[in-house]
Amino acid sequence: MSLLQEEREIILNNEYVDTFDFAEVSEFVKNASKDLFISHHFKNKPLDKMLVQPRGGFPTYKKQFALNEFFVEANVDVLPLTIDSNTRLNDYATASKMLRLSEANDVDMLNGYPLVNHGYRTTRKMITHFNKPVSLRHGTPDARLLIETAIASGIFEIEGGPITYLLPYSKNFPLDKAFLYWKYVERVCANYSELNEPINRESFGPLTATLVPPSITIVIQLLEMLLSLEEGVKSFSVSFAQQGSMNQDIVTGAVIKKMAKYYAKQIDCEDAAIHLVYHQWMGAFPTNRDYAEQLINMSTVIASMVGADKIITKTREEAVGIPTKEANAKTVANTQYTLRILNGLPSVVDEEEEEILTLEVKAIMEAVFNDPADTLWRKVFNSIKNGIIDVPFSPHIINHNELITIRDPQKNIRIIKRGNVPIPDRCYAYEKGKCDLTKDTTSIVNDIIHDIGIMQ
Amino acid sequence: MKVVTGVVGNDIHVVANRLIDLSLRARGFEVFNLGVNTYLEEFFDAAVETGAEVLLISSLNGEAEGWGREVKALKAKYKHLDNLIMMIGGNLVVGSGNAEDIVPRYKNYGFDLVCHQVDLNTGLDTLEAFIQERNKQ
A90, CA 20 to 30 Å: which among A127, A249, A254, A456? Predict the structure, then answer.
């Protein structure tokens, strides 16, 4: 028996799992409908059709089923399954208790669907009933049991990664452990991919959604992509969220597409399909629901300009709390409508900005590769530890917090203090040259506060 | 002057914490930032370890209300913290409340300076004025 299979048996031999039948699950994946695979849709959709995917998860099967019915009615392309916070922390006992309370009292005691507690036999009924691709949204550093359950249920897109699901969400979960747990995830996805269409892996580009400069976002997307491809994953989505400047988004989209192809080829993985996902604004939302709708609509326009393959939507109730199924479905219908009427978009290219961003990305990537460690994950781990990769506003203790960004007058995110991030001198001078740095630090802090809340 | 700061309890809201850090440095303080998700013991341990003169605790989700009650009892277990300037700021209650009720309550918990929903610069001005006043004495 392979080491991986031994580990799988240990993981799945869990008191919250009702006997995991490996052979049956493999047989299910092998014969599963192509419609359940987002990788199949990416391959066969018309070139300019962007897939629309909302967010959403409710504790009970009944409510999740009803949410999916609303989404299908609104012409959804990809269904979400968002997991509750207890499951994300592997606390299945609490999830189980809260699920029972939610079922007994008809009140939601969880902020998502406790997939492990529902189990794959139950959840598979829902997934195959709707016969739409489902994307697993979570935020779990140790997702081994969760993704086994997901794939066995017919969920063939797995979001997350060791960096993007840790740095924005955790203060002290050990990063080296996260890399190893995600290695397991990649391998399991790669193995199942050989049976039918590929399982798609998607990285979480928004990170902290707070003034993250595009160079850092792109580098982390590329590294998670490489960590996934080197384990044998054949379909991967890089992603980023609306940044606040349409031009910067278009430039980011162009550079991330080029760089993803370039680095995949470097490790002889050019046969893998790489896709681009765009998140509607992930920062602080306006409380005014009508403004929120306008913001969502604008995000859709920018996603089209960027040429994304999939868009992940927000709702008009974003500032208020967990959205109702009605509000959630409404966004899907509105986004599909906007996409249908958006025709004849001009092509915008900003060569200077693209060159600067490309130089920055390549310089950081080179510094990561030059780390003396023996494997890629260790190089990445060391690079985060020593601040070559620095994510603004990460709560994690390993993050350096020396990189400082503000917005220029066009609302582009600019690096005004590079810390240990190896931004080339020419690019650093260019970025700083766009900003008014004659102000004292107190005024700059006030500007940062303003820059975080620009959409409110 | 040394300041220990951080967000109390299981609160993970990091944005203001970073801004407090930046602003304190800009004002010339030496900052020991414990970050989000910090327990009271960790604050006092850090104050002892660094020899800080100011402890600035913040809260966004209002958890501070629960923790605040334990400040006096816990601080009494430490020697040499009698001169530590104790400051707290942010959203100091879960839900809504008004400063007239909240400020005296927190002073009673053992804080010298209490800033409920006060903007960052005003809060830090208050701290600097307090330090100046104390140095005169």
Answer: A127
**What is the 8-class DSSP label of residue A312?**
E
Query: What strand order describes the sheet that includes A157-159?
Result: A51-53, A310-312, A273-279, A235-241, A200-202, A157-159, A134-137, A79-82
Mean pLDDT of A148-164: 98
Here the CATH number for the domain that contains residue B58 is: 3.40.50.280
Interface residue A456 vs chain B (CB under 8 A):
no
Complex ipTM: 0.84
Domain count, chain B: 1
The pLDDT score that the predictor gives to residue A389 is 98
Confidence at residue B137, expressed as pLDDT on a 0 to 100 scale: 80
Give the nearest partner residue to B23 out of A395, A397, A442, using CB atoms: A442
Q: Is residue B16 in a domain?
A: yes
**Pairs of residues, one from chain A and one from chain B, whose beta carbons lie less than 8 Å apart:** 43
Structure confidence by residue, pLDDT tens digits, B75-105 = 999 988 999 999 999 989 877 788 899 999 9
Phi and psi angles of residue A303, each rounded to the nearest 5 degrees, phi first: -55, -35
CB contact under 8 A, B26 and A441: yes
Active-site annotation holder among A8, A88, A144, A414: A88
Q: Which of A46-55, A71-80, A126-135, A412-421 has the lowest mean pLDDT?
A: A46-55
Q: Which among B19, B26, B36 has CB closest to A449?
A: B19
Q: Is residue B114 part of a domain?
A: no
- Asked if B80 is an active-site residue, the reply is no
The values of phi and psi at residue A235, to 5°, are -145, 120
Separation CA A131–CA A117 (nearest Å):
22
Residue of B nearest to A209 (CA): B15
B113 within domain boundaries = no
Can A88 be counted among the known catalytic residues?
Answer: yes
